[in-house]
Amino acid sequence: MVTASDVSSGEFAELAQLQQKITNSSIPADLRIKAQTMIDRAALSFKYHSQFMQFDVVASYIDWITSLPWESRSTDILDIEQAKQVLDKNHYGLSELKDRILEYLSVMKMNLDQAKLDPISKNHNFARAPILFFVGLVGTGKTTMAISIAEAMGRKLMRIPFGGMGSALDLRGESRVHPDAEVGQIMKSLRRAGTKNPVILLDELDRVAEHARADIMGVLIELLDPEQNVAFVDHYIDYPFDLAEVLFIATANNTNNISTAVMDRLEPIQMPSYSDDEKIIIGKSYVYPKVLAASGLTSDQLTIVDGVWPTIVRPLGFDSGIRTLERTIDGVCRKVARQIIEKKINKIILSEDNVKQFLPTW
Questions:
Q1: Could you tell me if 155 and 291 are in contact, meaning their C-beta atoms sit under 8 angstroms apart?
Q2: Which PANTHER family does this UniProt record tie to the protein (predicted)?
Q3: Is 51 exposed, middle or buried (0-12, 13-18, 19+ CB in 10 A)?
Q4: Which of 269, 20, 224 is nearest to 131 (CA)?
Q5: Cα–Cα 20 to 30 A to 31, which of 242, 247, 264, 269?
Q6: Which residue has the higher pLDDT, 30 or 4?
Q7: Where does 80-270 sit in CATH, by number?
Q8: Nearest Cα residue to 245 out of 118, 125, 134
């Protein structure tokens, strides 16, 4: 334990702050001993040598281990009706996918209820989650579905982009023996979330750099395997962290570049393309109200008649997702907003006669 007689006042203040972090944290007992040993060693170096070359490394390490949510959890919202309302509010159709999510929440709810009735038993595994894997073309709602799941469960959502990831160390971290070593993206996400049971979105698994694909897939096997991720080791932290309560959700446009071993640990769910009829409903009921509010317009200032929607949905041809639809509606709202600001009009009713004037030109 560091005492004021060990080091000078300035050095003692810095070491005392680290000591306080350890004292106030909930880190595991053996990791606490390891951190305490590092502080004691630093105190001795300051006492007999007036300096400690690796003090910044020690300070950074203790800051990290005391900031991780070793025991902190968010309380899951396991209200199936509320979850259904959230999913229906944010997504049209996709009934099979919604049913799968509600089934998972139902199993969690039943196991949690059983654990309350029989708290002594250790056989309850209500926290373990499947690894959902959304596969589909661009704009089909893969990322927004992950956002909705997190909202429905009342969990924090953390996103790790895999597009262009060039090293497995980006996920697992780098050993502290290397200069400029950093913690991996998994531990960074947990620290930002502040809980050990967030939803972590592994976005675009098929977009990793070619030269690093084998190494990254190797880390993913450990990360996504329920038998292994209970003791996931980040090279920087150098201590096992239990990821069993994390709900991992992965996305990809296709599965060609994902190894068989990783696919075996995922639960693939195909995200369908949208037909024109579906897009009309999505545009009217989901996209239009959101874009209208974002542009500062009201429904009195811009009205779109039903007969115009087929033209808005397909201005240039078929598109599997809804991003083009969002851009089209956004472009219409911008043009209307400009004319209102320039006092050319007070309101507009978009009809087949004038729709071409407001559609964006590419």
A1: no
A2: LON PROTEASE (PTHR43718), LON PROTEASE HOMOLOG, MITOCHONDRIAL (PTHR43718:SF2)
A3: exposed
A4: 224
A5: 247
A6: 30
A7: 3.40.50.300
A8: 125
Each domain of the chain, given as residue ranges in start order, spans 9-67, 80-270, 276-358
Q: pLDDT averaged over the chain?
A: 85
Other CB atoms within a 10 A radius of the CB of residue 37 amount to 10
Least confident of 53-62, 143-152, 176-185, 231-240: 53-62
Q: Give the rounded distance of the alpha carbon of 144 from its chain centre.
A: 11
Task: Please report which residue ranges of 80-212 form alpha helices under DSSP H.
Answer: 80-90, 95-117, 142-153, 169-172, 185-193
- Residues 335-346: what's their mean pLDDT? 88
- Beta strands 267-270 and 132-135, pairing class: parallel
Give CA–CA dist 217/238, Å, rounded: 20
Distance from the Cα of residue 95 to its chain's centroid: 23
Percent of the chain residues topping a pLDDT of 70 = 88
Torsion of CA 91, 97, 101, 103, to 10 degrees: 130
In this structure, how many other beta carbons lie within 10 angstroms of the beta carbon of residue 335? 16
Q: Which residues pair with 303 in a beta bridge?
A: 349
Return the SS3 of 192. helix
CA neighbor of 337 nearest in space, from 299, 288, 296: 296
Contacts of 257 (CB under 8 A, 6+ apart): 205, 206, 208, 213
Q: Bridge partners of 269?
A: 134
- The CATH class of 276-358 is mainly alpha
The whole-number average pLDDT for the span 247-255 is 92
Residues comprising the chain, all counted: 362
Q: How far apart are CA 276 and CA 294, in angstroms?
A: 24
